[in-house]
C-alpha cells in the first residue's frame, strides 16, 4: 500500500455508487448499523449503534479516520443508483496487527440482501485496490456467517484458513488475488465460461 493518505472518492458500478460517508447519511446508516443482524457478524467487534446521535458521531469518527488512511484503504457508503438510497457500507481497511493485509468488508441493510449488491461492490473495490499497487485483498468471515461465506466464494475468493491473529477471535480467511479479479465480476461482466453457461 502507498504511504500517502487518500481521500475516499466515488466508484460507480452498474447499479451502485460507492462514495464517502456524509454525516447527513446518519439516518440511512442507522438502518444498517443499528441492526444487530448486521453488526453481529462484523470484525473488529462492533455493537449495534443505538440511536441517531451515536450514528452521527460514528460517521464523524469514520470521516476523520478516512483522512488518515493510506491509499487505497477507505470506508464507502453504498448508494443505489435507481433511488439514490444509501443501502449499506463497505470497507477496505488494513488488518491488525501488521496492517499489511487489506480487508474487504460489506454491511448491507437486511432488506437489501439477496440482490447481488455485495458482489457488485466487491468487484469495484477489488479493481480499485489492484489499480493501486495492491496484489491481494482478504475477507475475514466469522464461522456461521453463511451469507458472507457464499458472497466471498461466489466472488472468486480462495479459502486461506482459520486464524485468531487479526482480532483475537476465530475467523475464516479468504483471499482474492489481482490475477483472479475476473472471477469477482458480476455475472453480466463475466466471460461465458465463468458464468456457468
Ligand atoms: C454479507 C452480506 C453483505 C451479503 O449480502 P448478499 O446480498 O447476500 O450478497 P451478494 O451480493 O453476494 O448477493 C447474493 C445473493 O443475491 C442474489 N442475486 C440477485 N441478483 C444478483 C446479481 N445480479 N448478482 C449476484 N447475485 C445476485 C443471489 O442469487 C444471492 O441470493 P441468495 O442469497 O438468495 O442465494 C450481507 O448479508 C450483510 O450485510 N450481512 C451482515 C454484515 C456481514 O456479515 N458482513 C460481512 C462480514 S465478513
TrEMBL record:
Q: Which residues form the N-acetyltransferase domain?
A: 36-180
Task: Tell me yes or no: is Plastid among this UniProt entry's keywords.
Answer: no
TM segments? none
Pfam families assigned: Acetyltransf_3
Per UniProt, which keywords does this protein have? Acyltransferase, Transferase
> CDD domains in the record, alphabetically?
NAT_SF
Q: What is its EC number?
A: 2.3.-.-
* Entry GO MF terms: acyltransferase activity
The enzyme's main class, written as a single word, is: transferase
Q: Does the keyword section mention Repeat?
A: no
Which protein are we looking at?
GNAT family N-acetyltransferase
Amino acid at each position: 500500500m502507498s504511504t500517502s493518505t487518500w481521500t475516499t472518492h466515488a466508484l460507480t458500478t452498474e447499479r451502485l455508487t460507492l462514495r464517502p460517508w456524509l454525516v447527513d447519511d446518519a439516518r440511512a446508516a442507522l438502518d444498517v448499523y443499528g441492526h444487530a443482524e448486521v453488526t453481529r457478524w462484523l470484525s473488529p467487534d462492533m455493537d449495534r449503534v443505538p440511536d441517531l446521535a451515536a450514528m452521527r458521531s460514528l460517521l464523524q469518527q469514520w470521516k476523520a479516520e478516512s483522512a488518515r488512511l493510506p491509499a487505497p484503504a477507505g470506508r464507502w457508503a453504498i448508494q443505489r443508483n435507481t433511488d439514490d438510497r444509501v443501502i449499506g457500507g463497505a470497507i477496505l481497511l488494513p488488518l491488525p496487527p501488521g496492517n499489511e493485509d487489506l480487508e474487504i468488508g460489506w454491511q448491507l441493510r437486511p432488506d437489501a440482501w439477496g440482490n447481488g449488491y455485495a458482489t457488485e461492490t466487491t468487484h469495484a473495490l477489488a479493481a480499485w485496490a489492484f489499480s493501486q499497487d495492491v496484489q491481494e485483498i482478504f475477507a475475514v468471515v466469522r464461522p456461521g456467517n453463511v451469507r458472507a461465506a457464499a458472497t466471498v466464494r461466489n466472488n472468486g475468493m480462495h479459502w486461506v484458513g482459520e486464524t485468531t491473529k487479526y482480532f483475537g477471535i476465530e475467523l475464516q480467511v479468504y483471499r482474492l488475488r489481482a490475477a483472479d479479479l475476473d472471477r469477482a465480476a458480476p455475472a453480466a461482466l463475466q466471460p461465458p465460461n465463468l458464468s456457468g453457461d
